[in-house]
């Protein structure tokens, strides 16, 4: 029976409900009045000049002594708390303690901040108030994400998966494995199919869902012994492709892998057991990547820093699982066919289908489970432009869900906790606006010469720095080092200005399709390059700040009088802009894309190898290993090799690979050979895929970095400035 798609093609205009606007306006006015009352109480309103010369004073109980020892005492307490939290057990009471400490320091900071608005002039008040509101909203967003950490328990689902894995049933449910593709290369799809073929599960059927209608894909399916499905049009993009496949297949469960993902051997046995609970409709696993994010690669930080999605997949999703608020992420998941049928299939109205389809299941009462166990590896975009293209599409899809309340009544059908996660997600969608405020407002303050925080440096040291230390330290601890506030600011700074452009374009038509629909992964770039059209806001910031610095402090002959006059809080604004300049400089370095010249990624796999060539046999250690070849350092100093064809044996992996010597050199007196694989069977290809892309090798394992290490790595990336110093020939 053909699977029916209940969603109409036409999309009418969307409007924001009046109560939403009313709530927003009322909240803003209420907060503004509260701040005015606080300032009146402390006697800080000083109309007149943009920068009044009279010194603002706090009430005696809030005052800061001129003694610097007194000012740094809270800083020392905050550092002690962050260090001490490392010894607190990761139990609900420990997470509650962390949240309580963060709450206490946050209240202390924001009570003080409410007294630091620059009320001397309407313009300074507007800018100062805007920054304060951004800080409040940002902290509220963080609270929604991290206060439920008391329920953070990543091991719970893993223990369940272990139980299901040990008690595997003899007649497991049938699984259809979908590999949707549109315009990706045959090489990429082939790798995904080979990995799916290697999944240890007896009752599975693999399908290539080709929306490009390419004969090469049909030939690939025939060669590898899998099914091939295409359709006459591309209606509704990936969602339409999946819905069409639902009508052509019959499996009880459906596993979906994007063609740039490689599942592990035990993927299905680790997941299908959860469907023994009849209420489970979908199980999502994390996305983990075998190549580094573009910015880490460009900065030379491969294998040092985790992905920018690390905290989402290994913290946020785990917490969401407790409240049935898990986000379906479009790949590396298994879904029950019956559950999909109950919601009419994949959701088609938005530019992405995953988040919306998972939400449909939750609204319908199905349980969406999250297993925090890496069971597949994916490929991330390799250039700044492709990264932005992917993330902007995700952003647009995440925003669109709030305009689908007729089909997805999240505010009326879901529970309180589930709604809180949608509020958190909505705030996150507008985080580019807040990040732009953190960048632009301090720069405006420094250039014009007025303070956004009307307080001396000693007060900021007493109130602001302890809060900052606690914020960075507690969030890192609560997320088990999956979250770094420092690197989050880098990610947000890279993304904010292009994202503001996309959000602006969405104002007139939020449900329209802007930008590309598929992320480019097959990139070949022979030169080191920077996309100025995307990086120019970052470059403009550094230019403006540098000119302002020279004009204010360095070139007395040309700087105007209004820039020579000091202003209250100038030291704080200078420090803030210097920090922003550091972040922006790192962002600019990250935007300098390295060349991509290789057809396959190389991995630092070191294993004992034996090379048989002619009548000779030599031993060595592998180094850079890829799908097409490797480098092998021999243990014998002098070896005479006659001929080029050879057989490479990897005893530890029980793998033999026909090879050809294509390069010879020496290092420290030992021969180094470059080998190219000449694989002769599909089984050899499968074995090589399992060797490179599996959970046992160190370079594919999950990486976590603490707050100190992340800071040192950040400073080191500036010190080395590798994209500027290194030349890729």
TrEMBL record:
Keyword Transmembrane helix applies: yes
Topology of this chain in the membrane: Multi-pass membrane protein
Enzyme class: transferase
Keywords from the UniProt entry: Cell inner membrane, Cell membrane, Cellulose biosynthesis, Glycosyltransferase, Membrane, Transferase, Transmembrane, Transmembrane helix
Source species, domain of life: Bacteria
EC numbers, comma separated: 2.4.1.12
InterPro entries to which the protein is assigned, alphabetical: Cell_synth_A, Glyco_trans_2-like, Glycosyltr_2/OpgH_subfam, Nucleotide-diphossugar_trans, PilZ_domain
Cited Gene3D superfamilies: predicted glycosyltransferase like domains, Spore Coat Polysaccharide Biosynthesis Protein SpsA, Chain A
Catalyzed reaction equations: [(1->4)-beta-D-glucosyl](n) + UDP-alpha-D-glucose = [(1->4)-beta-D-glucosyl](n+1) + UDP + H(+)
Keyword check for Transferase: yes
Annotated compartments: Cell inner membrane
Pfam families referenced in this protein's UniProt entry, alphabetically: Glycos_transf_2, PilZ
GO MF entry, a single one: glycosyltransferase activity
Regions that span the bilayer: 21-48, 68-88, 93-111, 123-147, 433-454, 460-477, 534-553, 573-592
Boundaries of every PilZ domain copy: 597-693
Residue ranges of every copy of the Glycosyltransferase 2-like domain listed in the record: 177-341
The protein's name in its UniProt record: cellulose synthase (UDP-forming)
Biological source species: Cyanobium gracile UHCC 0281
């Amino acid at each position: 029976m053909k699977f029916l798609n209940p969603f109409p093609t036409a999309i009418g205009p969307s409007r924001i409900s009046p109560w939403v606007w009313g709530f927003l306006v009322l909240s803003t006015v209420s907060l503004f009045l509260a701040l005015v009352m606080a300032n009146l109480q402390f006697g800080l309103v000083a109309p007149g000049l943009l920068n009044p010369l009279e010194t603002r004073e706090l009430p005696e109980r809030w005052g800061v002594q001129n003694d610097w020892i007194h000012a740094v005492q809270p800083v020392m307490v905050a550092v002690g708390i962050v260090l001490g939290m490392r010894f607190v057990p990761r139990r609900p009471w420990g997470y509650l303690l962390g949240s309580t400490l963060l709450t206490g320091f946050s209240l202390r900071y924001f009570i003080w901040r409410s007294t630091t608005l620059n009320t001397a002039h309407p313009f300074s008040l507007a800018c100062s108030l805007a920054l304060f509101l951004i800080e409040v909203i940002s902290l509220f967003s963080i609270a929604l994400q991290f206060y439920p950490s008391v329920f953070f328990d990543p091991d719970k689902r893993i223990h369940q998966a272990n139980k299901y894995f040990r008690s595997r049933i003899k007649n497991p449910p049938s699984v259809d494995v979908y590999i949707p593709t549109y315009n990706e290369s045959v090489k990429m799809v082939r790798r995904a199919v080979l990995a799916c073929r290697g999944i240890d599960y007896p009752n599975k059927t693999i399908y290539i869902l080709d929306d490009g209608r390419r004969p090469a894909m049909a030939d690939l399916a025939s060669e590898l012994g899998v099914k091939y499905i295409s359709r006459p049009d591309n209606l509704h993009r990936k969602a339409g492709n999946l819905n069409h496949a639902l009508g052509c297949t019959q499996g009880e469960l459906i596993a979906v892998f994007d063609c740039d993902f490689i599942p592990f051997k035990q993927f299905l046995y680790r997941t299908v057991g959860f469907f023994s609970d009849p209420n489970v409709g979908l199980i999502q696993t994390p996305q983990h990547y075998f190549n580094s994010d573009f910015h880490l690669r460009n900065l030379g930080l491969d294998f040092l820093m985790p992905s920018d999605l690390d905290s989402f997949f290994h913290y946020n999703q785990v917490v969401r699982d407790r409240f049935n608020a898990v986000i379906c992420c479009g790949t590396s998941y298994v879904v029950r066919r019956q559950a999909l049928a109950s919601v009419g299939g994949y959701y088609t109205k938005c530019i992405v289908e995953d988040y919306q389809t998972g939400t449909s299941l939750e609204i319908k009462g199905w349980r969406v489970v999250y297993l925090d166990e890496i069971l597949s590896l994916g490929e991330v975009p390799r250039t700044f432009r492709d990264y932005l293209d992917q993330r902007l599409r995700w952003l647009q899809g995440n925003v669109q869900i709030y305009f689908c309340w007729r089909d997805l009544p999240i505010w009326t059908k879901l529970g309180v906790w589930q709604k809180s996660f949608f509020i958190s997600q909505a705030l996150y969608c507008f985080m580019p606006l807040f990040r732009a405020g953190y960048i632009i407002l301090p720069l405006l303050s420094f250039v014009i010469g007025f303070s956004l925080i009307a307080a001396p440096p000693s007060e900021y040291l007493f109130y602001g720095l302890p809060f900052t230390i606690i914020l960075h330290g507690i969030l890192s601890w609560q997320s088990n080092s999956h979250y770094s506030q420092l690197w989050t600011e880098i990610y947000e700074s890279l993304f904010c200005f292009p994202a503001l452009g996309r959000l602006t374009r969405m104002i007139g038509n939020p449900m329209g399709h802007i930008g590309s629909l598929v992320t480019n992964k097959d990139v070949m770039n022979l030169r080191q390059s920077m996309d100025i059209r995307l990086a120019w806001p970052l470059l403009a910031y550094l230019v403006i700040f540098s000119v302002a610095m020279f004009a204010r402090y360095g070139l007395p002959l040309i700087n105007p009088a209004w820039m020579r006059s000091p202003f209250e809080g100038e030291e704080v604004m200078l420090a803030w802009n210097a920090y922003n300049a550091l972040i922006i400089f790192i962002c600019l370095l990250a935007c300098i894309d390295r060349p991509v010249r290789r057809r396959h990624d190389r991995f630092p796999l070191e294993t004992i190898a034996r090379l048989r060539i002619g009548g000779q046999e030599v031993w060595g250690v592998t180094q850079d290993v890829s799908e097409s070849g490797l480098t092998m350092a021999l243990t014998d100093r002098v070896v005479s090799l006659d001929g080029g064809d050879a057989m490479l044996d990897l005893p530890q992996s029980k793998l033999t690979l026909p090879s050809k010597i294509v390069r010879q050199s020496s290092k420290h007196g030992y021969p180094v050979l470059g080998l190219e694989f000449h694989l002769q069977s599909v089984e050899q290809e499968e074995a090589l895929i399992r060797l490179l892309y599996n959970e046992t090798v160190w370079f594919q394992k999950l990486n976590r970095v603490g707050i100190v290490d992340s800071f040192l790595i950040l400073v080191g990336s500036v010190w080395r400035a590798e994209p500027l110093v290194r030349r890729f020939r």
